[in-house]
Amino acid sequence: MFDRVESTPEFWLLYRGRPFAAFLPRAAFDVSQQAAIDSIIASRSMAERPRQGLPSEQLTPRPATPPRSAG
Predict the structure, then answer these.
(1) What are phi and psi for residue 3, nearest 5 degrees?
(2) Residue 53 has pLDDT above 70, yes or no
(3) The pLDDT value given to residue 28
(4) Residue 30 pLDDT more than 70?
(5) If you count Cβ atoms within 10 Å of the first and of the last residue's Cβ in the chain, which end, N or C, has fewer?
(6) What does 51-69 look like in DSSP terms, one character per residue?
(7) How many helices and strands (H and E) does the chain possess?
(8) Would you kindly state where each structural domain of the chain is located, as residue ranges?
């Protein structure tokens, strides 16, 4: 469903192709639900293999950038 998922302390970034990213705020879930989501993400990322013809960097998580401050 998503090409790549990044975890940050505040949210998960869900990438679908290069121009599109959505975010899912961690604050919307309790600690046990957050752990379950992290577990699902980890199990799926370990199961994925680089597909022929795609750069492997697309499957490698990149460091998260901190959110921009308002103002």
Answers:
(1) -75, -35
(2) no
(3) 96
(4) yes
(5) C
(6) PTTS-GGGGSPPPPPPPPP
(7) 1, 3
(8) 4-47
